[in-house]
């Protein structure tokens, strides 16, 4: 027997290199380290050693401000949603609706909605149609019609396991080979660059303009497009995240119109990631679908060929049901044969989670004024919305006061993305440790405070600039003070 250790059939040198090349910082090194700290603190609490030992960490809670995951940060689920879901999971409860109504605070509309969904679906334990339950897709179409004032066809609605799965599907369909490219805003949510890496396709970055509140400048987009074409890239689509992640910016109507016109001129698919459509503090959300339909109405024939895919999710807004994995995308103007291939592609995964599909129904068709559940629903929804604004403002005010930090007013989504100026000495130390300067800053912040944020390099940033992204989801504002204290000490140490 040889004593040389045998290589595993699968080893780091023979797995898919495109997976290895993909980067996804929101769940990267910092997030892993923060989970280790959390486990350490939990162990100390759950299995106190004898004799008692001191917590060696300089903090007693970990704050996961790295990802938009509201219920991980103590956001309570909306009661109406969970009441309906509980009945779908265990329909026998419906045989005791008197108990539900009289003793468990269920309201008649929750019971009725559950009965209707069960009638349409059967059991949530069964696979649904690949594109999702038709009755829910019809509800989504009605929601879009009401939102935009233009018809929507439920045959073009595809329910998905979160928006991520929708993006994955569309990218698989659009990227035909290693010359296929997609215009992606920078900074961006790294789902886009990571998926392009996995598909061995090209990311064609266009920079958002920080000086105009992270605006989308058409000339910059055009230049990126032309540069990509010069490199031999077959540019297939343009991604827009509106409202933005990590920037929070909402696009004004004129920018949406310009992008649609640009896409029409250059035969690009428009991929509008609209998962933050209800998280808007400044400006208003206008959907790409609405602007496209208005352009088509006002300019007969000119924009009829535009292909638009727009995505939404139950993970964001005031819903925050990330773990249920629900979302949808709507296709407009797509070729019928392409849609058949999309159908086949999603069928390979069978169907999105059926309870996630039901959450989509509840999100887009919540209790209305006059319904028995409305009062509580509104109170909970408003409470979450107001809490987000209060925390965003507290963070913003704190960041404004911090040395070398530049930040625009919170505009929406769930994030702030300040610019940081890192002293030369700290940049040198970062280099010695093989880290980007913003990564080093965020690691030091985590080690000192237990707060996990994501370095700007994880989203892309203009060369020469440094940022970090934090969510404003964590309850209370005490942790904001931890950041300001750390920052002052960091600056003093490296000044
Ligand atoms: C812009 C953007 N798109 C898509 C997603 C994915 O969301 P989902 O949970 O619906 O997959 C996120 C998640 O943070 C996001 O920020």
UniProtKB/TrEMBL annotation:
Cofactor(s) annotated in UniProt: pyridoxal 5'-phosphate
Pfam families found in the cross-reference section: Aminotran_1_2
GO molecular function, one term: pyridoxal phosphate binding
Classification via InterPro entries: ALAT1/2-like, Aminotransferase_I/II_large, PyrdxlP-dep_Trfase, PyrdxlP-dep_Trfase_major, PyrdxlP-dep_Trfase_small
Keywords: Aminotransferase, Pyridoxal phosphate, Transferase
Occurrences of domain Aminotransferase class I/classII large (ranges): 116-477
Keyword Transferase found: yes
Keyword 4Fe-4S set for record: no
Complex and partners: Homodimer.
Family, per entry: Belongs to the class-I pyridoxal-phosphate-dependent aminotransferase family. Alanine aminotransferase subfamily.
Protein name according to UniProt: Glutamate pyruvate transaminase
Organism name: Lithohypha guttulata
Lineage summary: Eukaryota, Fungi, Dikarya, Ascomycota, Pezizomycotina
Gene: ALT1
